[in-house]
Amino acid sequence: MCIRDRSWRRSVVETLGCAAGRVGQLEDQIAQLERSLSEAEAKGDEKAARNVREALETKRAWLAQISSSMK
Questions:
Q1: N or C, fewer C-beta in 10 Å, the chain?
Q2: CB within 8 Å of 52: residues ≥ 6 apart
Q3: How many CA atoms lie within 13 A of 28 on its CB side?
Q4: Would you give the end-to-end CA distance of the chain in angstroms?
């Protein structure tokens, strides 16, 4: 294996590691937003619920994009 191959492999592994870390962060954020949505709905706060739904939609889209790039 030449130096270039090792360098490329190391950068790929580092990139995948960063992506995996970001996936975990997004999953945590989505779980928190889901709890916030439940609370807003329980209180009948439609404005807050709408804002949380929008944030959830964005975070889920990011998660899907990152997850698909890791395959």
A1: C
A2: 33, 36, 37, 40
A3: 6
A4: 24
Phi, psi of 44 (to 5 degrees): 75, 20
Two structure tokens written together for 8: 């490329």
Give the DSSP H or E segment for 70: none
Question: For residues 23 and 66, is the Cβ–Cβ distance under 8 A?
Answer: yes
Which tokens go with 66?
A: 């990152």
Q: What is the pLDDT of residues 7-26, one digit of tens each?
A: 655 666 666 667 778 889 99
Query: Which helix (H) or strand (E) element contains residue 69?
Result: helix 46-69
Is residue 51 over pLDDT 90?
A: yes
Sequence-distant (≥ 6) Cβ neighbours of residue 34 within 8 angstroms: 56
